[in-house]
Amino acid sequence: MNPGERARRASRRAVSRIRSFSLVSLRDLLVAAGPTIVLVIAACVVAYWVVDPAPPRQVRLATGQENSAYEAFGKQYAKELKKDDIRVTLQPTLGSRENLERLRSGQADIAFVQSGSTSEEQADKKVKELGLVSLGSLFTEPVWLFVREGVKTKSLTGLRGLRINLGPEGTGVPNLFRQILSVNGVEPKELRIGALENTPATVELLAGRIDGLVFSSAPEAPLIQMLLQTPGIRLFNFSQAEAYTRRLPFLTHVTLPRGIVDLGRDIPSQDYHLIAPTATLVARADLHPALIDLFVKAAGEIHGGAGWFQQQGQFPSPKFTEIPVASEAAKYYRDGPPLLQRYMSFWLANLFDRLWVVVVALAALVIPLSKIVPPLYVWRVRSRVYRWYGELRAVEQAWEGVVEAQREIVRHDLLHRLDEIEEQVNHISIPLAYADGLYGLRGHINIVRQRLQAAHHDESGLPE
Length: 464
Fold this sequence. Notes:
This protein is α/β, with parallel strands linked by helices and about 475 residues long. It is built from 15 helices and twelve strands. It has helices at about 5-20, 25-50, 70-80, 95-105, 120-130, 175-185, 200-205, 220-230, 240-245, 290-305, 325-335, 345-370, 375-400, 405-425, 435-460, and strands at about 60, 85-90, 110-115, 130-140, 145-150, 165, 190-195, 210-215, 235, 250-255, 270-275, 280-285. The protein is rod-shaped. Keywords: Membrane, Transmembrane, Transmembrane helix. Pfam families: NMT1_3 (PF16868).
């Protein structure tokens, strides 16, 4: 081996030896902290996925009949939530009553429901039994009674004997209009009530085969827009609208202004007084809180503007709903969107929100375990030195118990054992922070060796 190669090998050995005397022993640190790290990671995973699971990427929204406002608004909600990678599956239904049934059976996660579809007592019962919550009211749904031009009545009592379509029982309109008839002293059996859906009922009205039909919908519904401009079809004017709101508290008095449909053609040609329940967004109580925030946000985008019957910012609102408003929705109405969602995308903000749960779980484990790991690490490092003190003590005890005749032989063996111990100690790898213990051990080995050598000098009479 040439001198250059020997120098390189010597250099590598020196570097390796220096590394063995680092400030911290990574191996000992990992062994001491390993179980704690595994426990903390497991706790974080459990907290992340179980305590506060991620919101689903798909939600089912029960809407309403074909060409209804519920159907039109459902499409807008699907478009809004698609921006945040949430797929909204729209479920066409007959209306409010069927929507409530779908929520009850778990076929839908969220639905449009008309106020007045349930009495206050029924609403309380549904909340307790089903766990339903309201996300707020969205818009007014006037009661539109369209009749043929030949029907001249100005009072609902004049509808006796006429063919009036109220729609299928799965909608909220039949129950609503029966209550309206009741306060007028008119029994439903005094009318020839039809149960056609909105589109075929409109065809029947235009064909003259029925005398009138009742909708309860926002004015954005295509059929409402068409009938308001159809010659030969007249909108009934609820001139006693204010009295209706006193008798039926879930109703409000709204006015359809003259010319609002078409100013140029002056449609309608007069102000019309209407009575209106409100459309609400009702969800199952187990709907993910993050989705509640998203739907309330979307409601603000869709329904927050001025309209035929509302002022800018009047809707959505936590008012006008029999079903209690979800706490998350109430907080949104009070404080606005969550802080992080104001500056981040939905999924990134949700990730940070969920990380708070992980941080709490982490703190709950790290704080107590941080008091255990350091002493455990120190004990593991120092134990490399301490175990040789046992060997050193065994040498001393062997010398103290030896008989006079064997002292020289035993002394020689013990000195050889001390040399072996010292050789082993010289190869101990220990962090520099704990090197004092290593040097102390070497000093104690030397002290024991000196005692054995001093005993030899005493016995032989030689000067030390």
